[in-house]
Design brief:
Elements (H helix, E strand, L loop, with lengths): L1 E6 L2 H5 L3 H14 L10 E2 L5 H8 L5 E6 L2 E5 L3 E6 L8 E7 L2 H29 L5 E8 L5 E7 L1
Antiparallel strand pairs: 1-8, 2-6, 3-4, 4-5, 5-6, 7-8
Helix pairs in contact: 2-4, 3-4
């Protein structure tokens, strides 16, 4: 018997993310000089603190992790804060300072894509390491949209 698993990155599943949509509105307000109307606490898809830290480490920024629920990020484009009430909910993104709205928007968009890929990669590694006895990966295929298509043989 075979079992098929499909691992689609969170960025692909989300399509246009809440953060991306909110940031496009923010980018237009910043470019129009309406900085004081920027809302706080933009929703993100970031739930796993360690994956978020690992993803941030791939960017040119300074990271200060206060605890599992608060991370400060300093970039040349602006300063961000990721915060949440507890580790069971997703982080919210707070824009503490915006110096270059377009660059900040592009950085955050890329961060979301990279985070989704990292979640997918960690999940894939976890599945491979924790296959039960009598289970083997029969085939692996990467689709055009970077979805991983695994066929696992169960004996």
């Amino acid at each position: 018997m075979s079992m098929i698993l499909t691992l689609t990155s969170a960025a692909i599943l989300a399509g246009v993310t809440l953060t991306g949509t909110s940031l496009s509105v923010i980018a237009s307000k910043v470019s129009d000089g309406i900085v004081d109307e920027i809302p706080e606490g933009l929703d993100t898809m970031f739930v796993d603190c360690q994956v978020l830290i690992d993803t941030l480490n791939g960017f040119d920024c300074h990271i200060n992790q206060v605890d599992e629920n608060t991370i400060y990020v300093e970039t040349t484009a602006g300063n961000l804060r990721y915060a949440r009430q507890n580790n069971t909910e997703a982080f919210k993104l707070y824009l503490d300072e915006v110096r270059n709205a377009d660059a900040l928007y592009q950085n955050i968009k890329q961060l979301e894509v990279d985070y989704g890929r990292n979640v997918q990669s960690y999940t894939y590694d976890h599945i491979k390491q924790n296959l039960s006895k009598g289970m083997t990966i029969q085939s692996e295929e990467v689709l055009e949209d970077d979805t991983l298509f695994l066929t696992i043989n169960v004996e």
